[in-house]
Amino acid sequence: MAEQVSPTRSTLLAKRDQRRLALQGADLLKNKRDALIGEFFALVQDSLKAREALNAAAKDAYFSLLIAKAFDTPEAVESLSGTPVRVHMEVESLYGVKVPRISAPEGNGALAFSPIGVGSKTLEAATAFRALAEAIIEVANTENRLRKIGEEIKKTNRRVNALEQITIPEINEQIKFISDTLDQRALEEVTTLKRIKAKIEEREAQEAGVISAHLEKGAGL
Amino acid sequence: MAAGYAYLNARVRSRRSQLVGEGFFQQALSASFPDFVRLLGETVYGPDLKGGSLEDVDRAVSSHLSRTVGDLPSLVSGELRTVVSLPLLRADLVNLKAILRGKAAGKDPEEIKATLVGGTLPDTLINSMLQASDAAGIAQILQLPGNPLAKALRNAVQGSPDLLALEVALDREFFAAALAKAKKLRERFLASYFALEVDATNLATAFKLQALGAPANLEAYFVPGGTHLSLTAFSRIAQGDFAAMDTLSATPLAPATGARTLGDLERILRKILRQKAHQGSLDSLGPGLTLDYVRSKEWEAARIRLLARRAYYNLPADAVEKEVMG
């Protein structure tokens, strides 16, 4: 429903400013959307590569695990699990969008258990699972960024549509309404002034003894 | 002691005759999982096999090992029991490290207990260790006179090291203490086997450190007591200088001098140690037969677990053939 506006000249000026601002905003949002779409497609490639790397790392890790469990017993291998992988997380701004950057800090690959009594298969499995954890972190990083950017593209698109389809036409309508009202008022004012002017001229003519032609006709005699 | 060995070796010889034959492994290499379970059920593992899942196979292997290997110390008494227990202490070391790791990670005692393998330590002692608050507390509970593991833990906890340093110290102390115990018992074959095992462990550790990127304190990972691999050669190999392997060319570890990957090295070392254990089995009045039997059963169990996994996950035979037949 259109907003009720008072049809005054100052409102008209304010509405014109609003329209200029809305058009500028729509242009800016379109530019932002285009930049985000570019970033999104660049990230899609990285994300697909990270997924492929994750699948390969998972295959290696689980094969190493089954061999390790066979040689060093399932219980002994499972007792080595549970070492948390610490991640470094920071939030960066990408065209005003807050996106997380997750990374495994340097030195995170250090062994968490003694290599002396452990079989080579278990060690291989530990290394493979460390690589798997890093692949998961990379996928989380790219897919999270992708999701955030995708959401932002949708949000920006909605904003552009709202500005172009609703806000700007509404302001245009209001401007038209105010302009029409002001024009109407101006016309009325001109008419009133013309009538006042005619009255004044008539009075002056009467005082000077001049009989107005249209008054004569209007006397109904 | 000779009478004790005669009795023990008679029992071990009877059990040795029941080792699973090579025919089973050849057949199992290409069998489907249901066929594998059926084949396993026809072996000495049959009575322990209670179901048809992979977990059931793992349980059957564990229970069979505890029934046929874990009970060996109970067949003898006195000093002979200590001798027989020595090759089985590795399982206790694995359990002790699992408890220390579980405690450090804040796991529940029940959760830790699920990751323990059968060893020689009694259940009551394990339960007490699971209730202890830290490594020092566990060392206080594990007061077994003359037990290499208890001695290793007492030495390792000194100075309150972090978990990795504690595990490394425990491993070092354990191998050294087991070797010292074998020497003290005047069991020459057992002592020479453990000395070779120390060398093999050191060589494998050097390869592992080389693969992981050699740390600064290399000597912390070197187990003393070996006869063929020096600390200098160990350090050179750990830093990637494989020319140091040539120092082993006139030793029992000579077949390993050509190995350049950890996988190849481990296969060769396994073969060398099994051959060494087999040499001892020729002495019917010594501990060699028991040692050979224990190592043969451990190898048999590893092969069964590996083949079970190959069949369960439907992997091609060549994916595991090198390991199973190596």
UniProtKB/TrEMBL annotation, chain A:
Belongs to the V-ATPase D subunit family. Residues 132-166 form a coiled coil. Gene3D superfamilies: 1.10.287.3240. GO terms for biological process: proton motive force-driven plasma membrane ATP synthesis. Produces ATP from ADP in the presence of a proton gradient across the membrane. Keywords: ATP synthesis, Coiled coil, Hydrogen ion transport, Ion transport, Transport. The keyword Transport applies. This is V-type ATP synthase subunit D. It comes from Calidithermus roseus. The keyword Chaperone does not apply. GO terms for molecular function: ATP binding; proton-transporting ATP synthase activity, rotational mechanism; proton-transporting ATPase activity, rotational mechanism. InterPro entries: V_ATPase_D.
Automatic annotation (TrEMBL), chain B:
GO terms for cellular component: proton-transporting V-type ATPase, V0 domain. It holds the Pfam family vATP-synt_AC39. GO terms for biological process: proton motive force-driven plasma membrane ATP synthesis. Keywords: ATP synthesis, Hydrogen ion transport, Ion transport, Transport. GO terms for molecular function: ATP binding; proton-transporting ATP synthase activity, rotational mechanism; proton-transporting ATPase activity, rotational mechanism. Belongs to the V-ATPase V0D/AC39 subunit family. Produces ATP from ADP in the presence of a proton gradient across the membrane. This is V-type ATP synthase subunit C. It comes from Calidithermus roseus. The gene is atpC.
